[in-house]
């Protein structure tokens, strides 16, 4: 026989899904998983997974790529470098934001982002729309039309001048999302309180990066989280509380769940392994850790870990939002050194997301392998309408696979991460466990830290409705 049963067989690995851990081979044809079993037949290509974990490719549903970020500031990643970094970190799908700038329609924003992404991606992608200008046209026409075309999620901000929506605008947007059956991600921080505190810090001469953290206190996040959940309750629509940094905001999520609200919660690596003290480093180095909400303290880290273990959080995402440290366009500008107010908010992290959770979470026994896969892949697919095409290893699913060496020890260093930033906040961190091979729709696209095939293999993914919108009460 010369005809092979499969295009590719991944042989000898340990398959890990959100539900199971078992030994089997995976047969792949035309980019899809077509068989799972012991001793599958010959294939045109065999990929040896002996000693490796075979997991669904990571899905990072919270990344910022090529997002306009203010005068003189340039995001460090375009779609090529951002998705390359994602791939090196074991991801096969990322979900960047498509920012509607004031005065633009959502269609205009989409046109720009699709043009930037087209032909440049190493992973599959799909956009969340950021609504910054909820005009009657946006709410009444564009949101329902775009939802039907597979743009089934939007994000709104309660903070950042130019982006933040007032409560009446948030309510109108949530109500429109209910009608269009889109899920809404909410950035919860009280902008008025923060602006007041920024003014106070500057008046007192406290302009160093550390005061980014003191001007965005836990109470400002907790209050906004409570308000967002209340607004969602008023119009009875599901929301996602993103990048939660502390116990008090988590308690708001838990209380809303007890009231019966359909919600999802997300935390990020920076809230597990960084603290506000990192913003206090000498020589303006603290600016490397400026993101919002800011990293807190040890107690908050422990709380976020417990939320990953006990289900307060459904999602663990990077909030990759890369800026160079050095000028041009980065954090260390003249203005940024005059006041933290001007330091762009965000840190890179799409490549280090999985290793940090594996090393600090699985290896320490805080979470098991199934939970690791749920938090890094499966739940993202379910929440954002990609399941079971993505997010699991099953017959009929896309053959997006990350082959993971659970014993590989690495010292995180910026040179290995493939992104456009000139630093990583995790430089020097020692981790155990690293992705060694990645398949995207059946093709080997990454091996030993190097993309094997060129950019442009990533596709744009239209999405179905969220599981939460389809009546599930949880993921
Ligand atoms: O500091 C952050 N997180 N910047 C990215 C934008 C956002 O709020 O998600
Ligand atoms: Zn043969
Ligand atoms: Zn945000
Ligand atoms: Zn973000």
From TrEMBL:
Q: Which stretches make up the Urease alpha-subunit N-terminal domain?
A: 4-39
Residues of the Amidohydrolase-related domain: 53-445
Q: Which InterPro entries match?
A: Amidohydro-rel, Hydantoinase/dihydroPyrase, Metal-dep_hydrolase_composite, Metal_Hydrolase, Metallo-dep_Hydrolases_sf, Urease_alpha_N_dom
Q: Which domain of life is it from?
A: Bacteria
Q: Which SUPFAM superfamilies match?
A: Composite domain of metallo-dependent hydrolases, Metallo-dependent hydrolases
Q: Which segments cross the bilayer?
A: none
Alphabetic keyword roster: Hydrolase, Metal-binding
Q: Which cofactor does it need?
A: Zn(2+)
Q: What protein family does this chain belong to?
A: Belongs to the metallo-dependent hydrolases superfamily. Hydantoinase/dihydropyrimidinase family.
List the protein's name. Answer: Dihydropyrimidinase
Q: Which species is this UniProt entry from?
A: Roseibium algicola
* The organism's taxonomic lineage, starting at the top: Bacteria, Pseudomonadati, Pseudomonadota, Alphaproteobacteria, Hyphomicrobiales
């Amino acid at each position: 026989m010369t005809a092979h049963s499969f295009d590719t067989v991944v042989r000898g690995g340990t398959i890990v899904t959100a539900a199971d851990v078992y030994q089997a081979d995976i047969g792949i044809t035309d980019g899809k998983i077509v068989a799972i079993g012991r001793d599958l037949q010959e294939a045109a290509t065999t990929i040896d997974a002996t000693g490796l974990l075979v997991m669904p490719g990571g899905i990072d549903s919270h990344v910022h790529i090529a997002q306009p970020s203010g005068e003189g500031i340039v995001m460090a990643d375009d779609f090529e470098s951002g998705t390359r970094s994602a791939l090196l970190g074991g991801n096969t799908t990322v979900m960047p934001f498509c920012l509607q700038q004031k005065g633009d329609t959502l269609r205009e924003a989409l046109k720009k982002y699709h043009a930037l992404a087209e032909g440049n991606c190493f992973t599959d992608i799909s956009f969340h729309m950021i609504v910054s200008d909820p005009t009657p046209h946006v709410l009444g026409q564009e949101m329902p039309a775009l939802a039907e075309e597979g743009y089934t999620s939007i994000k709104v901000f309660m903070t950042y001048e130019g982006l933040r929506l007032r409560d009446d605008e948030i309510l109108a947007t949530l109500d429109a999302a209910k009608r269009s059956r889109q899920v809404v991600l909410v950035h919860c921080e009280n902008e008025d309180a923060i602006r007041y505190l920024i003014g106070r810090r500057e008046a007192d001469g406290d302009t160093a990066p550390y005061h980014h953290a003191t001007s965005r206190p836990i109470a400002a996040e907790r209050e906004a989280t409570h308000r967002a959940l209340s607004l969602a309750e008023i119009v009875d629509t599901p929301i996602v509380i993103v990048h939660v940094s502390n116990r008090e905001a988590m308690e708001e999520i838990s209380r809303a769940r007890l009231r019966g609200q359909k919600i999802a919660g997300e935390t990020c690596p920076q809230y597990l392994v960084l603290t506000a003290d990192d913003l206090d480093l000498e020589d303006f180095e603290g600016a490397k850790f400026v993101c919002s909400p800011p990293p807190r303290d040890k107690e908050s880290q422990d709380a976020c870990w417990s939320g990953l273990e006990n289900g307060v959080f459904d999602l663990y995402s990077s909030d990759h939002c890369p800026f160079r440290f050095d000028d041009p366009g980065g954090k260390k500008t003249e203005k940024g050194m005059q006041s933290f107010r001007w330091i762009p908010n965000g840190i890179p992290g799409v490549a280090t997301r999985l290793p940090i959770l594996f090393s600090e979470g699985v290896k320490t026994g805080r979470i098991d392998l199934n939970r690791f896969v749920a938090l890094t892949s499966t739940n993202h697919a379910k929440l954002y309408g990609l399941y079971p095409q993505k997010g699991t290893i099953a017959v009929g699913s896309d053959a997006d696979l990350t082959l993971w060496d659970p014993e590989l020890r690495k010292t995180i260093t910026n040179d290995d991460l493939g992104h456009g930033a000139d630093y990583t906040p995790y430089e020097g961190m020692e981790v155990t466990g690293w992705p060694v091979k990645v398949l995207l729709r059946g093709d080997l696209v990454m091996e030993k830290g190097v993309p094997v095939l060129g950019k442009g293999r990533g596709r744009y993914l239209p999405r179905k409705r969220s599981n939460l919108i389809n009546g599930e009460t949880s993921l």
